[in-house]
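Input/output pair, single chain:
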Amino acid sequence: MTETYFQKGFGLKAQVGPVLAQSYHSEVVSRIRDLGSSVRAGELRLKLAREFGFCYGVDRAVEYAYETREKFPDRRLFLSGEIIHNPDVNGRLQAMGIRILEEGGDASARYAEVQAADVVILPAFGVTVGELQHLRAKGCVLVDTTCGSVLNVWKNVHKYAREGFTAVIHGKHYHEETKATASQALTHAGGQYLCVRDKEEAEGVCDFVRGRVTAGSLSERFAHAASPGFDPDKHLQRIGLANQTTMLMSESLQIQEMLRAAVRETWGEGELESRFRAFDTICSATQDRQDAVLRMLEDGGLDAMVVIGGYNSSNTQALARICADKLPTFHIRGPEGIGPDGSIRHRPVGLHTEERSDSGWLPAGPVSLGLTAGASTPNNVVGEVVERILGLRGGRVGDMQPA
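Output:
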């Protein structure tokens, strides 16, 4: 029988390695690191976070996609949605002839064009159980790049469901990863889930646990983010907390303590262990990047932050939220956000539309900018942003000196 499911690549790293290096490496970033991650060019100082950009899971997923193209040069290749949330990376994959399928809709409609002779790459976020079953039934070749950190969350969600705990997932109910994680709970008889996006929504769950709101009110509020047939009176008796791996770590920990306190107050300390469970399922790379930004902010001396990454990247959004609490912060998709006239196109934290700010964001005179990038942002994009910013002051990469 011909193998049709692959999780570990094809051993073609030597063949695709040079292409990956050419596409995503940045001499600019390497120079900044060599100079201690803090550089000066004239009156402009740039400080790069110690941890930023591509994480292991993203790097692995992108490499597997390139290996898949190398392995199946004559086959039609599909991606079940963006492989990661970065427009530069997804654009390069499309240029290689890999078609990215639109999200949404049921599996039969979404994968209607896929045939048995085709290859489908599953993204780092994973796919729902139903989608995977649908694709397996088609008999097409599947290349699964699901991140190991996501698989770890799934393991805990399975454990919750087996032992009668409802998975309360801190995540965006519409995000590919959260949808995939939620679907794992339903593979067990009686398995249930509820998604909370932030502390405000978690507080609503806590209010129900404490008896302050009715089951009907809670069901109405979370109708879009709960499992079919979810009954708060029945299914919030025992809670197991999980996370979308790219959420803000500090908020996940706060939600954990909020739920723990509500359970303790309602049923008592003696019932806590049998009614509430939590595991740290924030990706270590996400945490490292958030910690690096926090250290930059604590060190001080910065006038503003530039956060680089896709607008739909949750981990990039989390970095921007951390920075925006302390400094003027500009979340840009990539170098195209820096205009030659000194303007910047960015998405303010909490908004869903891009805005344009004039040259006042980078005033004349001495300025210190902090830079970081989400885990799905490649070094070449970071380097191009640096070059654009230097150019606003008439500087070049060769002008950079240790700060």
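The two ends are 61 Å apart (CA to CA). The chain is about 45% helix and 15% strand.
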